[in-house]
């Protein structure tokens, strides 16, 4: 049996895992150049062990991936210095771990082996993603034209929302009342007659900031009309107080649409490759996992996220990473809010 890790060793495992991707790939890129080349790449030494500019660049790249984008140019120097200090502290702990022979501990070896697998799988997935071809101009325009309520006919909605608890009978009564075209005064009278506690709020939402189920009904309603949502236990009345046109021209959103479609193609390239690899591979399940052989598709789809976490999530965040300008002077939502809302588009 392997000996249990001490608290210090556990912390070291976490640090080794954090740095594993950079250390493994950094080792592969450490060519046998001359001493002058190595000196130009060396940015620090810790007890005689070098920290190279390549390792720092990989650390910065890892942080950029976690943050969803590269750092601003004005922040690069500060981030580089902070990263170097982080790598120095990391190197000190790694040296102590090696002195304590933790690099021979079975649990540490298993953690490093797992990290190596993840780094290699991610590297190959990223190579597959890089093979995706950019969308054509006609595809970008078609994607834009297929969503008029979000672009050419985009609106900003002033909404008044009311949340109230209802019994099934009250919910049905409220549904019939609204279906009959009840006015706001009639709805208020009904609520007072039922003696229902309620919570109200008012907000201005861009089209892309609304749930998909709300957008089309709200766009067809007249000002003052209400939409009933929720369930019998918790009803939500959404009143369209006003709507202001705030279209987004194709030229304004083209870069964001291209980024989104490109992210989808990268994800699809990885998913297609994994499907092909699973089809051609000899996979045998044993023991209690033998039952899993009947559902390889679920595992295949999950492996896209495992092999390349950023790729699987990219379509949902691609447009969020590229802020869209609000082209209407009446737009009250900033461009960043528009971009966040568009992250959930399908």
Explain what the structure shows.
- The protein is an alpha+beta fold.
- It has 3 domains: 124 residues, no CATH class; 101 residues, no CATH class; 91 residues.
- 57% of the residues lie in helices and 13% in strands.
- It is built from 13 helices and 6 strands.
- The chain has a 4-stranded antiparallel beta sheet.
- The longest helix is centred in the last third of the chain and has 31 residues.
- The two termini are 51 Å apart.
Number of helices: 13
What order do the helices and strands follow?
HHEEHHHHEHHEHEEHHHH
Percentage of residues in DSSP E strands: 5-15%
Number of strands: 6
Layout of helices and strands, plus pairs?
Blueprint: H1 7-29, H2 35-41, E1 42-46, E2 49-52, H3 53-67, H4 73-99, H5 106-130, H6 137-145, E3 155-165, H7 168-179, H8 184-194, E4 199-206, H9 212-220, E5 226-230, E6 234-245, H10 250-280, H11 296-307, H12 309-317, H13 335-342
Antiparallel strand pairs: 1-2, 3-4, 3-6, 5-6
Features:
about 350 residues, alpha+beta, 3 domains, 4-stranded antiparallel beta sheet, 13 helices, 6 strands, elongated, disordered N terminus
Give a summary of the structure in a few sentences.
The protein is α+β, with helices and mostly antiparallel strands and 346 residues long. It is 57% helix and 13% strand.
């Amino acid at each position: 049996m392997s000996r249990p890790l001490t608290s210090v060793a556990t912390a070291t495992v976490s640090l080794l895992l954090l740095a594993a991707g950079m250390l493994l790939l950094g080792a592969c890129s450490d060519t046998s150049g001359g001493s002058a080349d190595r000196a130009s790449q060396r940015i620090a030494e810790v007890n005689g062990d070098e920290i190279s500019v390549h390792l720092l660049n990989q650390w910065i790249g890892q942080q950029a991936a976690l943050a969803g984008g590269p750092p601003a140019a004005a922040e690069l120097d500060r981030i580089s210095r902070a990263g170097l200090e982080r790598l120095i502290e990391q190197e000190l702990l790694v040296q102590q771990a090696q002195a304590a022979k933790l690099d021979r501990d079975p649990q540490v070896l298993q953690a490093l082996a797992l990290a190596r697998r993840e780094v290699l799988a991610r590297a190959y997935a990223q190579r597959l993603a890089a093979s995706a071809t950019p969308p054509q101009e006609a595809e970008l325009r078609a994607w834009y034209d297929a969503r008029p309520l979000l672009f050419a006919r985009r609106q900003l909605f002033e909404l008044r929302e009311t949340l109230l608890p209802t019994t099934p009978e009250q919910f049905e009564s409220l549904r019939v009342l609204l279906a009959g075209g009840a006015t706001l005064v009639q709805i208020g009278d009904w609520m007072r007659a039922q003696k229902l506690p309620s919570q109200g709020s008012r907000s201005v939402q861009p089209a892309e900031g609304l749930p998909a189920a709300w957008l089309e009904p709200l766009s067809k309603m007249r000002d003052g009309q209400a939409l009933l949502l929720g369930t019998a236990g918790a009803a939500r009345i959404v009143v369209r107080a006003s709507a202001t046109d705030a279209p987004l021209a194709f030229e304004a959103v083209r870069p964001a649409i291209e980024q989104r479609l490109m992210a989808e193609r990268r994800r699809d390239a990885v998913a297609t490759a994994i499907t092909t690899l699973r089809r051609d591979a000899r996979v045998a399940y044993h023991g209690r996992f033998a039952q899993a052989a009947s559902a390889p598709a679920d595992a295949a789809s999950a492996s896209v996220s495992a092999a390349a976490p950023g790729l699987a999530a990219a379509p949902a965040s691609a447009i969020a990473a590229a802020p869209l300008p609000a082209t209407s002077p009446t737009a009250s939502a900033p461009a960043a809010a528009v971009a966040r809302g568009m992250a959930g588009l399908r």
